[in-house]
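hey team, just a heads up i'm posting the complex here instead of the shared drive bc the drive is being weird again. everything in one block, sequence lines first with there labels, then the predicted structure for the whole assembly after. its four chains so it's a bit long, scroll down
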Amino acid sequence: MSNINDVARLAQVSKATVSRVLSGSRGVKEESRQAVLRAAEILNYKPNAIAQSLSSQSTNCIGVICATEHIQQSTGYLQALEKQLSRHRKHLLLRFANDDKSLMHAVEELSNGMCDALVVVGARFPLPELPEEIVLIDCLNPSSGNSVQCDRIFAAETAVHYLCSQQRRNIALVNFPGGEAATLTMDGYRQALHNYVVPFNRQLVVENEPSLRIALQKLINSGVKFTALLVTNDSQAQEAVMMLNQYQLSVPEKVMVFSLDGSTRLPGASTIPAIEYPLENIARRAVELLLGERHNSDVVRGSLLIA
Amino acid sequence: MSNINDVARLAQVSKATVSRVLSGSRGVKEESRQAVLRAAEILNYKPNAIAQSLSSQSTNCIGVICATEHIQQSTGYLQALEKQLSRHRKHLLLRFANDDKSLMHAVEELSNGMCDALVVVGARFPLPELPEEIVLIDCLNPSSGNSVQCDRIFAAETAVHYLCSQQRRNIALVNFPGGEAATLTMDGYRQALHNYVVPFNRQLVVENEPSLRIALQKLINSGVKFTALLVTNDSQAQEAVMMLNQYQLSVPEKVMVFSLDGSTRLPGASTIPAIEYPLENIARRAVELLLGERHNSDVVRGSLLIA
DNA sequence: CTGTTAGCGCATTCAT
DNA sequence: ATGAATGCGCTAACAG
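-- predicted structure starts here --
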């Protein structure tokens, strides 16, 4: 690879002039300018990004740590993020993590000057203590300052409204395993029930079970009657549908399943109603936070998506 | 952030000694060694990756350009790749691309010294001319030297064998849109039919249609009878199942759908039989190619996956 | 064993 | 308008 010296020599100017021409700064005689551009063209010269980074004290890399548990969801975020980042000429350094330990590990490995900022996406486990400046997207627990979250209250409310409008008033909920998201979802759920004058039945809510399978099992075993089931995302919904069918609880005839996050539906989508979040918006806001254009938390509303 | 000078000063040694301790570490008096480690600990010092890269002329970044068209598939590769790369202390710089133009663009943007190597994953479109050293994973057209490909012949053969064993002998095929993958798939398909003494019927094969929807439409309209349908991946399969059901061609009773690549099934998996590829192996081989441990093409066999 | 020095490629003063 | 010099943080060659 040719470097700035090669170009300078060929163009018969100094390194400084080459740098000036290619970095946009004006105050260069048109003649030298052309000479530099020609030389660069001939040598197929690209300024070395690493040297630029060292000099400017800023790589243009953003570290993105993506939770693996709900990959289908996270992938949508990845795409949306990459799109926004590349619009800002930023690069996306990717890492996966499936628990607090590996997350922490990833954060440390990316904290050696290689990245200008970090994002954590879709972590559904309790987050460890993280550096304040990390941006959280759709994580359970906004322990850090900067975050973009989904409006869980609104989602749960909307879901309940929809189900009630479908004459399903015995609505079960398999909630998040904890964190603020769980609390907010519960709030929305209760609030909406209240609006419809449906009594709240504690037995219809399952929380803190290790898997949907177990949670749903517990719900069914309890013998409580339900005509609808709220779950936190599409993959849970898929699993729920299969299980319910096995138990002769046909979907949607006997039980209507509702996904509280169907943001990244597959092409051959299911007919399960869901709340869909605007991934582009979320990514855009996240990038704004990253680039320091704003500093606070940000809540995004999804919209009802029915077949 | 503290730098090597801070550590040297605090440890009362020179930069070189600090570097020695934290890098190769041999030939340093135990006493200085401890002093350096202590100082580094106190200052929470991490060697600056960018400076290291500039000095060593090698970032530890691998650029991965991921085709977006079949994201569900690609995501599996992404995870597997990241895992293998991090085992080798390499970082994954992610880019998405959906056609030859954006692919080329991505390649250029990553060719400024920021990456040590590049990978393209899952490109289902004809590839443009690319630098020879790029590694291709599961792409249609191995125009470049280094690539890891799926054994399409074997996949198609295996699929046909399975379907014949299920008494389905009228097997339709919606093939890849072109490239070597299409040819090989066709080869395997014909070979297996030949083995089972099933005559080859050109009408059963649809190629070069813009979407599965259209391809399948064409197949159905042609009036040709088929009791099985080979498609190239799970998302195509999903769509096919929906369409077939709409046309009263119930799956799997009337038509059995078979996915030639079901590598990244969702949790609530479907019951569609498929060929599954060992993503870990593929990623491992790709990384070997990347790190220059080998130089050639590599073909990986999948295995039959039935519910 | 260890300190000094010279790059790595570039951007940015500071003179001219 | 432009060239020479300096520094970004680190590693490696060389000289003690």
